[in-house]
């Protein structure tokens, strides 16, 4: 098991767009395992490589008993109305806020062996795909909130006991999105 420290809000890696994966090798398989182990230990519903300090387009997920990963994702959002729901993030421990997301999402990419994958999700799975793909683009869930909600979220971040810390290994308590942070 290779549990990695989760980077917290304020770490520049979380705002840096990740690079596409080009090498499908042993190192990539280790990264997927590290992401999976770290996500499951946290516990979380998803974890993107930048959250453990790796600038590659890889994320893992564990939603509704489905465990998996996606590399170099391309997201297709439904034209259905956005749904606002409580959303947390492992890089914002203990905090959750109403965040609008599409109800349905299709994520296309490849697995750790370079084989094509198409994943379809609704509700929490769709939210997870959107949240993790945002991480790969340097976008955080607070960026998706309206101005009033973002202001409240930033106040909570400033008041959080972890605020201002630099990437410690944090054992997180379950919260938001049905007991899981994304």
From TrEMBL:
Catalytic residues of the enzyme: 132
Cofactor note text: Binds 1 Fe(2+) ion.
Domain of life: Bacteria
Catalytically driven reaction(s): N-terminal N-formyl-L-methionyl-[peptide] + H2O = N-terminal L-methionyl-[peptide] + formate
Entry keyword set: Hydrolase, Iron, Metal-binding, Protein biosynthesis
Binding site residues for Fe cation: 89, 131, 135
GO terms for MF: metal ion binding; peptide deformylase activity
Stretch forming the signal peptide: none
Keyword Nucleotide-binding: no
Cofactor(s) demanded: Fe(2+)
Enzyme Commission number(s): 3.5.1.88
A Pfam cross-reference name: Pep_deformylase
Record-level GO BP terms: translation
InterPro entries reported for this sequence: Peptide_deformylase, Peptide_deformylase_sf
Gene3D superfamilies per record: Peptide deformylase
HAMAP family given in the database record: Pep_deformylase (MF_00163)
Function: Removes the formyl group from the N-terminal Met of newly synthesized proteins. Requires at least a dipeptide for an efficient rate of reaction. N-terminal L-methionine is a prerequisite for activity but the enzyme has broad specificity at other positions.
Family: Belongs to the polypeptide deformylase family.
PANTHER family, sorted: PEPTIDE DEFORMYLASE, PEPTIDE DEFORMYLASE, MITOCHONDRIAL
Name of the protein in its database record: Peptide deformylase
Organism: Planotetraspora kaengkrachanensis
Lineage: Bacteria, Bacillati, Actinomycetota, Actinomycetes, Streptosporangiales
Gene that this polypeptide is encoded by: def_1
């Amino acid at each position: 098991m290779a549990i990695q420290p989760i980077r917290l809000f304020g770490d520049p890696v979380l705002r840096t767009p990740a690079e596409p994966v080009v090498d499908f090798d042993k190192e990539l398989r280790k990264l997927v395992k590290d992401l999976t182990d770290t996500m499951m230990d946290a516990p979380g519903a998803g974890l993107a490589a930048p959250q453990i300090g790796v600038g590659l387009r890889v994320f893992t997920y564990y939603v509704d008993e489905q465990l998996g990963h996606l590399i170099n994702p391309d997201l297709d959002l439904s034209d259905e109305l956005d749904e606002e729901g409580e959303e947390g993030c492992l890089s914002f421990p203990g905090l959750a806020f109403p965040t609008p997301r599409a109800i349905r999402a299709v994520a296309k990419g490849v697995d750790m062996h370079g084989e094509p994958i198409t994943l379809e999700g609704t509700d929490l799975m769709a939210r997870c795909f959107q949240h993790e793909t945002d991480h790969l683009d340097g976008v955080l869930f607070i960026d998706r909130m309206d101005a009033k909600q973002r202001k409240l979220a930033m106040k909570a971040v400033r008041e959080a006991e972890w605020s201002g810390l630099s990437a410690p290994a944090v054992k997180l308590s379950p919260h938001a999105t049905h007991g899981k942070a994304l």
